Amino acid sequence: MGSGVGGVRPGGRYENAFNDKLEKTMVRQEVVQPPTDMKVGPRSTTAFLSDGRIHPVRTRGFSAHGSTTKATQTEGTHTLVLDKVIHNYGGGLDLASGVYTVSVPGFYALTLSAHLESASNVANGSSVSVFKNDLDLVTRGYFGGQTTGSLSIFGELFLNIGDRLEARIKSNGAHMSKFFFSSRLMVATNVPLPLSQILVLLLMVLKRVYVETGVSHFKKPQKNRVRGASSRFPRSGAAPPPSRCAHTRKL
């Protein structure tokens, strides 16, 4: 006989029943686990249950950093493509299209700077804009005509899984203008766990306590009573009643 409740060893049929209740209570959520080559960024920790044990799942923030090493022609409007990518942790940045697809939700810090080398044929109002899911975020920098110079765009925005971010250059019909760009995008904070996942983690902790101690938190434990025991006996600590044995007769 083990030390579990009712003489049943912890980890036996009671644990299986607990697992059944836990699986019915859990809300199925897709866990996006980043590749193992990521080095930087904040962590967020969740957990999953397997073989009666809680295993943590660690994720790191995604980031991308790159620049152009050659002049970019800006006839018409097109998406900025960085030809020199310094790092692309998580693979969110599409090197061919220049579009960044979000895999980890959170608040992202964005910086984009540009230097204009030649403005001899740049039309007034030439601009660089940041788009989220084809929506202009009004984070825009302008170049005036007949001048050289630089611009910088800074911003912090919330991105969810599947959101697409890109920078678009609009030249207003200018030709032969030359831009050099540098861009950086890094997640600042991860979103907090939803209430459903917090409840799941709490159930996991209670399950772990039950496996180790045999004490269930789902129902009030009942006191074991000895069959046939009389309630007339006094409580512990009181003197027992006098014996009613018959006196020995004298000869």
UniProtKB/TrEMBL annotation:
Q: Which PROSITE patterns match?
A: C1Q (PS50871)
Q: Which domain of life is it from?
A: Eukaryota
**InterPro entries tied to this protein:** C1q_dom (IPR001073), Tumour_necrosis_fac-like_dom (IPR008983)
Residue ranges of domain C1q in the record: 55-206
Return the annotated region ranges for Disordered: 221-251
Q: What is this protein called?
A: C1q domain-containing protein
Q: Which organism is it from?
A: Notodromas monacha
